[in-house]
Structures are given as structure tokens and as C-alpha cells.
Specification:
The chain is an alpha+beta fold and about 325 residues long. The chain has helices at about 50-55, 55-60, 65, 70-75, 85-95, 115-125, 135-150, 160-175, 195-205, 215-225, 230, 240-245, 280-295, 300-310; strands spanning about 5-10, 15-30, 35, 45, 180-185, 190, 195, 250-255, 260-265, 270-275, 310-315, 320-325. Strands 1, 2, 3, 8, 9, 10, 11 and 12 form an eight-stranded antiparallel beta sheet that branches. The chain has a two-stranded antiparallel sheet with strand order 4-7. It has a two-stranded antiparallel sheet with strand order 5-6.
């Protein structure tokens, strides 16, 4: 089957109101596909779900150790954060240690998703800056790598040494020569791959320390994400809440346009999901269902229930519907 499958349904009372179609692949650490739904060879952009792959050169190059980066900075390098103080304070400190300021970033200013941070800016009459961008941790990693390599400031250019290192790591982990790239929301290149390639890369992240420099780097990034789920996303977010619900044993990461990946070290599996219509709620529901299927998430945990069924409520707090996995998915 290569057509997208119905993965998630939205019901309002007795009426099926909408459906979310998608694709999913599960790979083991050998790179083999062990399960799939839809088209495993779908060519797609992983968006922010690939940040762990983009952060590999930061460690492999020796830059992380040369600049004394700890697990918090490594988690932030993989993050799509809320722009809360817990995130921006760390980013500002990191920048200061590089001798840089907000102007060094090539990501744009972004209003924080974190309400206290957003309200604080409004109250102070201040505009959001680039450190509030959800990708500022990744860009701090790029700047660190750039300094270590002695490269120029335009680190998001496709032929910059930072991006050349990213592409090499990316293609090695996915096992596929990328057919092209798009420019991400943060202005950095985002390389296309197949859904199987993305799942394979996550499985290789799950394999961890295999004695190679890349394996050691992968293990450090996964460990950092699992240790700091609050830095990978933020309060109320699926990445943070579900990693906590799984007792920090699994690393997961969302990407724009309804991509979601999971790294299961104990099961030695990598998972990649893409929802065709770009609906975040469906990607969260689908990844939660897969995590339950592979035994790492308790379906009864409140963080799982929130993604698997909702419920859907109206502005008055009344339950008006529910979300559920389609019977065609995970069967």
C-alpha cells in the first residue's frame, strides 16, 4: 500500500466530522523496515524533527567539548522550545560565552509560545528577539560549530562549512542521498529524505554508542533530550509531556507540518510519522498510538489520553467530541 491511510478520526457526537490521512514507518537499528502504513518511500521534509541529526556535527567535531557544553545545551540544540525564561536564559548565557549577542542569529524574532514570557514582553513594552525563536538552541549549536571550524557568520548558507557537515551527517544517518532541500522557518536548510530514511536515522540514534564518533554523539544527544524534556519543547507540549510520561526512556521530537519522530533505545527502534494535511493534533495522536503499540507509553496516562482521545471541548468547557485512532491504523 502506497496511499496515505486514515490514521486519526474526529467525532462530534455520532457524526464522523473529519479524518487525518498519513504515513508511518518503523525501522530497527539495522535500517530494516519492521512496520509501515501508507508509503514508506514518501519524499518529505522532516522539518524540526531532524534537529538531532543537525546537532551531530556539534559533538563529532569536538566543538561541544571544546566549549564545555553540558546536557542542557545539547538538549536545546535539539529543541523547538516555547521561548520561556528557562529556554531563553540558557540561550543568552550560551551566546555570551561565545562572545556573541542576538544579532549573530540568522533565525528571525518570534513571539514566545510561553504565555508568561509573552505577557512579560507585552507588559514591558518590548518586542520579541531572536533568542525567543523556537530554533534558537539549534542556531546556538550552529554558531558554536562555526566558531570551532573558524568559519564565517553566514552559517545558514547551504555551502557554509556548518551546513556541509550537517548534510554529510544527515545523509549518512538516513542512508539516502538527499534529493534537495527547502528553507526552514528559521532560515536554515532542511534536507528532504524518504519517510523510511527518517525512521532509519531515528533507529540509528536509538542504537547509540556503537564505538564510532557518530554513535557516541548520537547517544549523548538522545541522553540529553531524555534528561531535559522541559528544554526540548516546554510546558503543555507533547514532546515534553510524553517524554515525562515514559519516564525519560524515549526521546521524541515534533516537526512542522505534522511530522513526528521517536527514538526507542531499549527497543532499538526508530519511528517516523507524517500527516498529509499538516495537522499537529493528528501527528500527536498517531505518535502516541505508536508509542503505546511498542510498549513504551501507558495508554491510561493523562498525557497519552490527552493526545489519543482529547476530549474535544467547546469554549464553555463542554465535551463536544473526541479524537481517536482509525481502525485502519495500527491494526
Amino acid at each position: 500500500m502506497t496511499q496515505a491511510v486514515n490514521m486519526v478520526e474526529i467525532w462530534r457526537g455520532p457524526v464522523l466530522e473529519s479524518q487525518h490521512m498519513g504515513h508511518a514507518v518503523v525501522c530497527d537499528t539495522s535500517g530494516a523496515v519492521v512496520d509501515m502504513w501508507g508509503d514508506p518511500e514518501l519524499v518529505m521534509l522532516p522539518r524540526s524533527s531532524s534537529k538531532m541529526l543537525q546537532a551531530l556535527p556539534l559533538i563529532e567535531s569536538g566543538a561541544a567539548d571544546a566549549f564545555g557544553l553540558g546536557t542542557e545545551q545539547l538538549a536545546l540544540a535539539c529543541a523547538s522550545h516555547n521561548g520561556a525564561a528557562i529556554h531563553t536564559d540558557l540561550v543568552k548565557t550560551w551566546l555570551g560565552e561565545l562572545g556573541l549577542d542576538d544579532d549573530a542569529f540568522r533565525c528571525g524574532p518570534q513571539e514566545p509560545s510561553d504565555l508568561p514570557a509573552r505577557n512579560g514582553l507585552i507588559t514591558a513594552g518590548e518586542a520579541p528577539c531572536r533568542c525567543h525563536n523556537n530554533c534558537s538552541g539549534k542556531h546556538s549549536g550552529f554558531l558554536t560549530l562555526g566558531q570551532h571550524l573558524g568559519a564565517g557568520p553566514e552559517y545558514v548558507e547551504i555551502d557554509h562549512p556548518v551546513q556541509r557537515a550537517v548534510l554529510e551527517a544527515y545523509e549518512d544517518m538516513t542512508g539516502i542521498t538527499s534529493p534537495g532541500f527547502g528553507v526552514d522557518g528559521c532560515s536554515a536548510p532542511n534536507h528532504a529524505t524518504t519517510l523510511t530514511g527518517l525512521a532509519r536515522a531515528m533507529a540509528r540514534m536509538a542504537k547509540g554508542d556503537d564505538g564510532t564518533a557518530r554513535g557516541k554523539a548520537a547517544a549523548r544527544l538522545v541522553d540529553a533530550m531524555r534528561a531535559h524534556p522541559d528544554l526540548v519543547a516546554g510546558e503543555g507540549r507533547a514532546c515534553t509531556e510524553l517524554m515525562r510520561a515514559m519516564d525519560h526512556k524515549v526521546a521524541i521530537k515534533t516537526g512542522a507540518e505534522a511530522v513526528f519522530v521517536a527514538i526507542l533505545p531499549e527497543q532499538e527502534l526508530g519511528i517516523a510519522v507524517k500527516i498529509v494535511d499538516g495537522g499537529t493534533r493528528a501527528a500527536e495522536c498517531a505518535i502516541a498510538g505508536l508509542l503505546v503499540k511498542y510498549g513504551v507509553l501507558d495508554a491510561a496516562h493523562p498525557a497519552a489520553v490527552k493526545r489519543l482521545t482529547g476530549p474535544i471541548t467547546n469554549w464553555d468547557g463542554k465535551e463536544t467530541g473526541k479524537m481517536q485512532l482509525s481502525s485502519r491504523f495500527l491494526s
